[in-house]
Amino acid sequence: MTAQQQLIFQDSSVLQDFMLSALLDDSPLTPTADFAAWFASRADAHPFQVSRVPFAELTGWRFDPTTGNLGHESGRFFTIGGLDVRTDRTWISHWRQPIIVQPEIGVLGILAKKFDGILHFLMQAKMEPGNVNTVQLSPTVQATRSNYMGVHKGAEIRYLEHFAPGRHSRVLVDALQSEQGAWFLHKRNRNMVVETDEDVMVEKDFCWLTLGQIRGLLRIEHLVNMDARTVLSCIPVAVSAGSHSAQGKSAASGEFPLSVLRSAQGEGGARHSISEVLSWLTELRARRELIAERIPLTEVRHGGWQRSATAISHESGRYFEVVAVDVQAGSREIASWRQPLVAPRETGLLALIARTVDGTLHILVQARADAGSLNGAEIAPTVHCQPANYRDVPPEHRPHFLDYVEEAEPHTIRYDVMQSEEGGRFLHAVNRYLVIEAGEDFPLDVPEEYCWVTVYQLTSLLAHSNYLNVELRSLLACTQSIW
Amino acid sequence: MTAQQQLIFQDSSVLQDFMLSALLDDSPLTPTADFAAWFASRADAHPFQVSRVPFAELTGWRFDPTTGNLGHESGRFFTIGGLDVRTDRTWISHWRQPIIVQPEIGVLGILAKKFDGILHFLMQAKMEPGNVNTVQLSPTVQATRSNYMGVHKGAEIRYLEHFAPGRHSRVLVDALQSEQGAWFLHKRNRNMVVETDEDVMVEKDFCWLTLGQIRGLLRIEHLVNMDARTVLSCIPVAVSAGSHSAQGKSAASGEFPLSVLRSAQGEGGARHSISEVLSWLTELRARRELIAERIPLTEVRHGGWQRSATAISHESGRYFEVVAVDVQAGSREIASWRQPLVAPRETGLLALIARTVDGTLHILVQARADAGSLNGAEIAPTVHCQPANYRDVPPEHRPHFLDYVEEAEPHTIRYDVMQSEEGGRFLHAVNRYLVIEAGEDFPLDVPEEYCWVTVYQLTSLLAHSNYLNVELRSLLACTQSIW
């Protein structure tokens, strides 16, 4: 254990356990060769149908007669309200929008257990109504507070007891992390990995996978869902020469370029110290103005939003719509239901630019505050936008590095996969995840809201809440499949 | 530098600089013997008068005709709005209250500079209208965003340039920290200590003090203001045997009981690892419900609040009042003004219980969410309340450890001083600050919302936002004067 690794975990054995599991891309419990067939069988086992319905047929939900807010009759789950946002930006500094309000903290939990000394993670084939492809690979537990307090009145959540107080498990990861600030107001979920040594009955929709297997699956589009990706991102990359030799797996060190090893190992080669990175973020959180105030949903009409029988949408045809769906399904806590979903109008782009600086790989990140951000700016990918929204925007107001990323030369592209955002709240929300390794001719001088950081620095911040936004966490999880 | 110290700062020289300054309780720049006379002269130089006025005479401010919110005509500074709060507590689970809304981040900054190798801190004798005793010792800079963006239209803020982007200074401390969650909605300020090596012109109301001198002044009631205390709390205690010998000041190690040294030095003797402490806090943030929604100020009347010509107050005579004052002063950015203030009805009690566990001093803290907390529960003192509010409350709903603390035996009391909260927003807000060192017969088993932590663990969390509430930070600064 180096001093730097202790920043993340006191217990060196946790890091070693993660690393050993990451080195193995196959397992006798769920052989990699059998995974695709197993996963297809689970999808086939759950026939279901999602169809748009008019708001008038959204059973159980209603528009509040005074505010126009769309909520559930029980007062639980979530509400679609309105938000008025004022910023000090030069381009669109004041706007109104619908926003998902869900002032409670859910649990995204992955259960881990050692088999023959190797940590395995219990993953779930789970259907969500907004998924483009029916079933995706999900955490062991994905529970809203309403879920675990029993508001659903459906079946109880499997394996939830391992994440509850009084559990007999070792907590490996535990932090509140934010979700999509453009669509959610102040939403956070608790990201957990807990290890049990009890016997675990494996239900039909679940399977044990090593970290190496899961990281392999991250190369496949729309397979590992967003909830799984955010939890996985909190697991340190855990690449360390010393640990390799300790495990007798020195072959692995040959797989990683030295600059990546250096980036993941500690503070040594970082362009800025972690104190400087935090001070950069604090500066932008303090100086940049973002004043978001709840307003009744009826009031978003003054911001160009219109409500029809089937959607709340913006007159420009941009951003997103609020719609209603009917779900007939077999693998959820209850068999069928209706709910609103937020449907983005266009595919998004989440891109990281990386380059080696003085022998250490660095990642270019930005400090970005979305309308629903709880703490002001969070650390976000180099490019984070829906490019279609900027088609006819003057060049000086287009996001930095968007053109560079869209025109990247093929040989610099390390990762280019379409992934889905959370299918429980978003309908067909798809982002292109892109990682580009620029050459050393890429300029190191960047605008003040951007900063070069190492993989290690980002990972160390994930022990705390609200530093990395969900899009960056999700993208970081994907980079674990390549580096 | 041990591995643990690197948790706080990469740069070991920063810790050594703080420690050396803390060891010196006198300085040729401002001799300790001369301080009281200098301070009295500054108070005398600033004749001022604060008097209550009716709301009708609150020039520049008005109650909004629709919402009843009390705000400034410019739309800047702060607003008094309403808040509706629902919790899962068993005692008073739903209430309404007025709340100060100020959605901007100010700067609380202390400028530091080395003289003959010793760090000195530029402190200010500053008047605030709500202070019980006119002038208190304040940070170099205490600026709201309105201040530094020039809304005051008054004199510019002295020394602010050292805390602005492009400064040529070394940032020693820089973190956003919360303020009183019972009275402020989501308020945070940026706590900074920056070191300059430029020449600094010392204005009349300012003086250079060592950390040792300032810590000595923390034993005097109502002298070091809250804004100074919160910034000071972010400076590590920096007690380390190794560093003592490095400085040739080994005598100092004799001043500290071994258990305190151990508590301040690192993770070694801690009852819970820092991961466990964070997981404990995360658990309580996730499980406990606190749903606070902005409402118009007029709507707090349904919660028992009444507005008279001179005050908004609760029918029970408890909690606080919103009042208006006229200020005639000479040492502020502008010479006279009127403003609302929040005036607590009773003196508060902020108490820490400490005890030695296995040779290491531990502090008992609680996870506590106030109405205006941004992130849910923060870590708070063992006891944090206005005792008068609980006079006729059934024993099972009285705060834990309140009776123990109020009946503490004199020989266990290590610190017992009255201190003021922020005089710019609060009128005569006074708390009794109490530190009790309990014997080893004090029970280690505590209710689930309490946890035993070391001084080191608390200090290491101060590099991040929103872990320690302002009352605990303020109390921690005071403990630096005794340990």
Automatic annotation (TrEMBL), chains A, B:
Matching entries from InterPro entries are given as: EvaA-like, EvaA-like_sf
Where the record annotates domain dTDP-4-dehydro-6-deoxy-alpha-D-glucopyranose 2,3-dehydratase, the positions are: 33-235, 275-478
User: Which GO terms of the molecular function aspect are on file?
Assistant: lyase activity
Q: What is this protein called?
A: NDP-hexose 2,3-dehydratase
**What is the scientific name of the source organism?**
Saccharomonospora xinjiangensis XJ-54
